[in-house]
Amino acid sequence: MAPPPLPNESKRENGGSSGPNTVHPTAAAAQAAAGAASSAAMAGVMLALKALKTTAESNGGVEQRPRRRQGELQNRGKNAVGEPEGGPAAGVKRHRKKRNGAGQGVRLDVPMGGLEGPMVSLQGGPPGRFQSSSKALAGLPKGGSLEKPKRGGGAQGSDSGASRREGLGLGSIDRGEGGAQRFDTQRPERTDEESGQAGSPAERAAAPSSAILQAPPVAAKASSPEIHKELGDANVQSQRGGQDADGVQIEDPPGVGEGYLGSSGSAVEGLSERSTSDSSLAEARGGCWTPGKKHTDEDDSSESWRKRKRHFFILSNAGKPIYSRYGDEHKLAGFSATLQAIMSYVENSKDTIHSIRAGAHKIVFMARGPIYLVAISATGEPESSLLRKLDLLYGQLISILTDSIERTFRRNQKFDVHSLLGGTEPVFASLMHVFSWDYAVLLRAFTCLPLPYAARQAAGVALQEIASPGLVFGLLLAPAGKIISLVAPRRTPPHPDDVLLLCNFVGASESFRTSESFVPLCLYRYNPSAFLYAYVGYLEPEVCLVLLTSQQDGFFHLKECRAHIEQSLRITGVFREVAAAVTRGGLRVEEVPSASAAAQRRLAAGTETGEGIGSLPSSRSSITASNHTLRQKQTASGDASTSGRWGPGRSRDEGLSAGLGGPAGIWHFLYRHTAVDQYLASEYSPPLETRAAQKRVFQTYQRLLASMQGDGAKSGPHRMQYRRDSEFVMLAWSTSDFDFYAVFDPLADKDAAIAVCNRVCTSIRQIEGDLFQTGPVPLAW
Amino acid sequence: MGCSTSKPVTQQQQGGLQSLGREAESLDLKNRRVKLVLLGDSGVGKSCIVLRFVKGQFDPNNKVTVGASFLSQTLKLGESTIKFEIWDTAGQERYASLAPLYYRGASAAIVAYDITAPESFQKAQYWVKELQKHGSPNIVIALVGNKADLADKRALQREEAETYAESNGMFYIETSAKTADNIQELFQSIASKLPGGSSGSAGKQTPQPR
């Protein structure tokens, strides 16, 4: 089992490669043409529609899967990517053909290993009839730019596919297994950006290739003994990373996130702006992001609209637009009808369409009763992640309207839901922002403001004191959706998705800041059919109280509760602590405790070392002061000189990252506490201070998580992964208690990286009470 | 309208509606508390009127009200004071079915429209009818034409609104939350017209909306 996941992964993620992967020659032609259109997003859809009509002949472009209600996700994963790519022997896995009425809709899943043969037929990349149509639509397919994936000459030839993003001026890095790597170094943005950060450009340029060349056979078994110590026999089932090229194709080059003008604009901003890392999180969460829907003047005939990299649509099954991320919904009626036509065409044959690939674009469909949701993405993100986002998008819709909207639709198909969503543009716009930046989306967890244990307890008690029959949830929110305290009835712990959508709704609605409000709101994981009523009031500019009741007339009671809560929070000094915590921010990689025995030994030679380890940080007095309680606790719980201390004490020698990031070149990490569904993300520190870099990290995690969860590997969930690409070394580690993900400098040493991860995890557990809301008190009711 | 919201509303309409208005009027005539509700189409400036009255602020950035906001402000009227407890409702259609929650038991209502937007006047008429049907019998209704500062874009003549107001037993006033024009006057007029208020005299002191 456990074939190396990587090539699979890269195959999956390589939007551009799907075409060539398709075996059937005619399909290949169709796909090739579709690929040609990759630079114009919507052209792809148009194509897809045409492709649908012609799939009967071409057997290609549309993936159809057997309709299954339950366990759709798993099925998707397997069906879509489950092929072993382990070697060339891996054959073509052909999904069972479904002969539908017209005989259309055969799906071919092409495993990596099966590429060689078909490649030949692709080589010619005969621009079929789609070519011309795509040109007409897109106007700039650059002759299809069908680069032959057979390059690299690797024995296994499992190259992950053509990089044909030239149309957009993007480069990509493809890497096959066993040394069949290839570099497309058309990545001007990246070079520009990073050369300044990590030594000389030359050094930087050398980095990726050496990273690849090193590409050590990585097996967790062979990895650091420390991990084994840590886990004991805790069934570390590491996959055999050894054959992996540890490369993931970087789909979304820097500077070009999703969002053509919007985000790349901000990326540029990010490049020019060397913000302090303190502000970077705020920035990431909304500093230079302005709320509200943008580009409403566009429609599907706009070039700019087509070029946007990630679209989301909600439409009714009658084809009426309900929501579109970009553009004016009314003007998109025709486009919505197109999407609806695609979906119902397949539905008519008692089947369900899941996704279409058109060049670099992936179109993912989801039907929820009479509501259709569609994502069109050229960012190369995994299908599972797009589905996750569609699900959240649906949840947000339900949170505003409840699922009674579905009944309304059944009664009246032509009902115009869009008009019911008046004024919610900021909520959806904010959700789109969350999709690109908020780890809660990836981790299905919420995050707490790091706060001294006692302060969080006090906040929990204050919320608890107002317990009353109708009250369902109580929530104290800090900026950026961080939880100060959350209380819920014992039997119905809040679902992380509900928390996410609630935080998004509250955070996006500016009117809450001006006065107390009372709002009907539905928690779709809690009960999608009924409204709860939310009292929302800001106690301080940075502290928002949300109380949810099932009683429609509960406002005045909750208003009294608010006064009570406000008073007890003031008395116990929670506001002060929160203000300090907001200023302080979260954990930083450069403060990773650096004094484990092993590290000390390694560092012994370093000259700056001793000073760093032994002393409390002096340069950051404010942080030190506010961290006081954290530190006390650490001291109490562990030997201060050996572990558990977060502080800027590391030596530069320890990492290979020219002084950036944390020890051993750790740049960022995520820690998910399984038992409480909460996560912790480190603050972005240099070299991740630009938004472009942060976005790359986010997307890297996105792929890493998808691959861990079995999306992209037949073997299903993994326990541990270590992989390396040109930009990062990534480490993922899943245990029964927590999941840990980290990105490192691409030149990081594996053993050192693993050691650092161990240290981080250990020390997080030591100060768990400050970082997470744990313990029975706040969650009891 | 409000189709989606209606279901849960009916589910939970267990006699709670009145209690939102429980503090509507206290018997103490010197220090009365008055429940006032603002209704009108979205974007006519309801929140701006309230914020101008309560906080003396005007925020040109359009912040959509979500659900309903609650604010209060005390107004001195001669020797007595009136504490307005104001429900500033959202104008969006989906909240329309929740409106009874807020106007039930209210002793005063401001129905606002935008003098530059004729359709908002249609919506105002809808709300007036709604209040006449379901509101308190003695409710004082003020028909307010907001955005008076945009006189050059005026789409509705004052006379039309005045006639309509007169025929429905309301009083009419044109305000501008932006310039604070007539905002105080609006609330003073309401106060003076409330039953038991310092009736005649105060009403005459109020500058007549012209």
Automatic annotation (TrEMBL), chain A:
Domain FUZ/MON1/HPS1 third Longin: from-to ranges: 665-766
All residue ranges annotated as the FUZ/MON1/HPS1 second Longin domain in the record: 470-564
Biased composition (Polar residues): 616-644
Biological processes, Gene Ontology terms: protein targeting to vacuole; vesicle-mediated transport
Start-end of Low complexity biased regions: 198-211
Residue segments, region Disordered: 1-27, 55-303, 600-657
FUZ/MON1/HPS1 first Longin domain boundaries: 310-431
Role: Plays an important role in membrane trafficking through the secretory apparatus.
Family assignment from sequence similarity: Belongs to the MON1/SAND family.
Name used for this protein in its record: Vacuolar fusion protein MON1 homolog
Source organism per UniProt: Klebsormidium nitens
From TrEMBL, chain B:
Alphabetically ordered keywords of this record: Nucleotide-binding
CDD domains named among the record's database cross-references: Rab5_related (cd01860)
InterPro entries assigned: P-loop_NTPase, Small_GTP-bd, Small_GTPase
One protein family per Pfam: Ras
Single Gene Ontology MF annotation: GTP binding
Keyword Nucleotide-binding in annotation: yes
Stretch forming the signal peptide: none
PROSITE patterns from the UniProt entry: RAB, RAS, RHO
Cross-referenced PANTHER family: PTHR47978
Name assigned to this protein: Rab family GTPase
Originating species: Klebsormidium nitens (Green alga)
Taxonomic lineage: Eukaryota, Viridiplantae, Streptophyta, Klebsormidiophyceae, Klebsormidiales
